[in-house]
Amino acid sequence: MSRFSKGDPSSYSEPENVVTRHTDLFWNVDFDKQTISGEAIIHFDIVAKEIERILLDVSDLTISEVNVVTEGGKIPVTFTVSDEVKDIGAKLTIDLPTKTSGELKVSITYETSSKASGLQWLTPENTLGKKHPYMYSQCQAIHARSIVPCQDTGAVKFTFKAEVTHPSELTALLGGVRLSSENGKTVYEQTVPIPAYLLAIAVGAIVSRPLGKISKVWAEEGIVDECAEEFSETSQMLATAEEICGPYVWKIYDLLVMPPSFPYGGMENPCLTMITPTLLAGDKSLATVVAHEISHSWTGNLVTNANYEHFWLNEGFTMFLEGKIAGRMFGREARDFHAIQGLSELQDCLQGQLKDTPELQKLVVDLTGLNPDDTYSSVPYIKGQNFLRYLEDLFGGPSQFEPFFRFYLEKYKYKSVVTDDFKSTLYEYFNGKADDKLTQINWDEWLYSTGPLKIVPKYDTSYSDAVHKQVEVWNNNPIDKIKNHPDIDTNLHVWQLIGLLTELVQNPNNVEITEEWISLLETTYGFVGTRNSAFLFTLARLYVKGRLFNRLNQVFNFLNSNFRMKYVRPIYRDLEKWPEAKPLAIENFQKVKSQMMKFCAQSVAKDLGITIDI
Ligand code: BES
Ligand code: ZN
């Protein structure tokens, strides 16, 4: 695919011929069969002069019937489903009886597989309450096609209405506005057009607490009060985002705190952000993920990447906004500390996860033959965020750049974009205002170079200086010198402590990581018995780095307490390199893999160097 093309290498659909405008969904959620069955009525706008067929994306769907819906009734039409291509799915070809133009409604009757890649079915034992089953979807990057036949590309956006039948004792939540819910039938609609990857559903024993004027937090009963406390800053974050970006158009902003198997930190489903329960630290220190997902309400959900080659337009922009919210709420030092942390995450990612895939080290990638889920790495996030910060500084800071940012949002809201749209808008806006600045931008370097950033913006280092001072102490002193070292500072902010641990994991240590060293570290900063998942994650990596066999129990406890990929994948990758622990890691993984989402289990298998079939 060419660098700036709107064509989507991960979709069979042909948006240049026909686009989805609206979809009516009639879903029956069956927990016994672990399937969704029902009907999708897709309203198409034919944009070519006339067409004779429609191509849709499907994956593991059983399609029983396709009809064209006319005023006079339903007309059956023929269809074929191609063989499945790994990671991509299959092509559904719908043959139209005659050359057709204008508008068209097509009804598809179908059922999902119990192994649908976009759905997770949990038995009651794997929920907190242990009484009821739970199911949820995760459609990004391209799993919507395992739930409903669709044009599964960011280039196409549509509204939907969904009528969902489900066990009456459970609650069904969708990424939209609820119209009604009674006796096991729940109706939702989304009147703002969305790409297929933002379709979302969760059904379970879920209750809510209020968070603000347009926000509630949903979770299982056992943790919902704690969730309300942890995410109490949600309304303030939303208000801050509106100050930066303009009005919030999605009417409601609810959070759903997911079961531990949720593979991401957060997912920006419209009206219903899903977040991992690993954010429940007890002190709101990990709640900035919510600021990130809120930011997607503009960058991603309103202005959408047309395909995953331009994923940075979603995630880099969102990191940039998240930083702005953090800056306004917690100060410039905090904002820049966050950005600096990102830089070391990027380094870790380039040397680990992306070591052998230079293509994915580029901000704009050629996805031909690649799985779009593999674009989930620090590159679009951190390189993207730094590029925008670089541009902001270049054009004279927030006072100059934020108006441009709003101009860009205004121009592309409700639309889909590729990198060239961003570039041309930057020129459009700054032409005649800052021509000398425009010519300074090395686009090739920023967009297509592999390896680490060559241009790093100047960040405020006051928070990170304090961290480095601690790192120095731990890395360069024998244990008896550390104990009473004058530079030890136990009053660091939680974010700085996370930074300290992250750096200790990444830096080559001049001292050996021993049980005594770790214990001293843990007691010095009060990590013993912590529930903060960011501490637990980095500590687990330190145990593995030090080959502390006696700590493996703690490592596996953490690995089995959540299946957030950002946490479990690096630890399994570390364990894979430790010959004595590797067989135990594989054994542990085999035991718990059924609780992971399919693509998460597959990624971890890859990290462990084994193959599994699920
Ligand atoms: N949209 C992403 C999650 C995602 C990315 C799902 C790619 C599927 C494919 C979400 O907004 C996100 O970026 N989550 C981050 C947290 C954030 C604070 C950086 C995550 O889960 O790590
Ligand atoms: Zn994101």
Describe the structure.
This protein has 19 helices and 22 strands. It is of the alpha+beta class. The strands form 5 sheets. The chain has an 8-stranded mixed sheet, with no helix packed on it. Strands 16-17-18-20-19 form a 5-stranded mixed sheet. Strands 9-10-15-12 form a 4-stranded antiparallel sheet, with no helix packed on it. A hairpin with a 2-residue loop joins strand 4 (62-70) and strand 5 (73-76). The structure holds ligand BES and zinc ion (ZN). The site of zinc ion has 4 residues, from helix 4.
Record the SSE blueprint:
Elements: E1 18-30, E2 35-46, E3 51-58, E4 62-70, E5 73-76, E6 79-81, E7 90-100, E8 103-111, E9 119-122, E10 134-137, E11 158-165, E12 171-174, E13 177-182, E14 185-194, E15 201-204, E16 207-212, E17 215-219, H1 221-230, H2 234-245, E18 254-257, E19 266-267, E20 272-275, H3 288-295, E21 303-305, H4 312-330, H5 332-351, H6 378-394, H7 398-412, E22 415-417, H8 419-430, H9 435-440, H10 443-448, H11 462-476, H12 479-483, H13 494-506, H14 515-525, H15 533-545, H16 552-561, H17 565-576, H18 582-592, H19 598-608
Parallel strand pairs: 1-11, 17-18, 18-20, 21-22
Antiparallel strand pairs: 1-2, 2-8, 3-7, 4-5, 4-8, 6-7, 9-10, 10-15, 11-14, 12-15, 13-14, 16-17, 19-20
Helix pairs in contact: 2-3, 2-4, 3-4, 4-5, 4-6, 5-6, 5-13, 11-13, 13-15, 15-16, 15-17, 17-19, 18-19
Bound molecules: ligand BES and zinc ion.
Ligand BES binds next to strand 19 and helix 3.
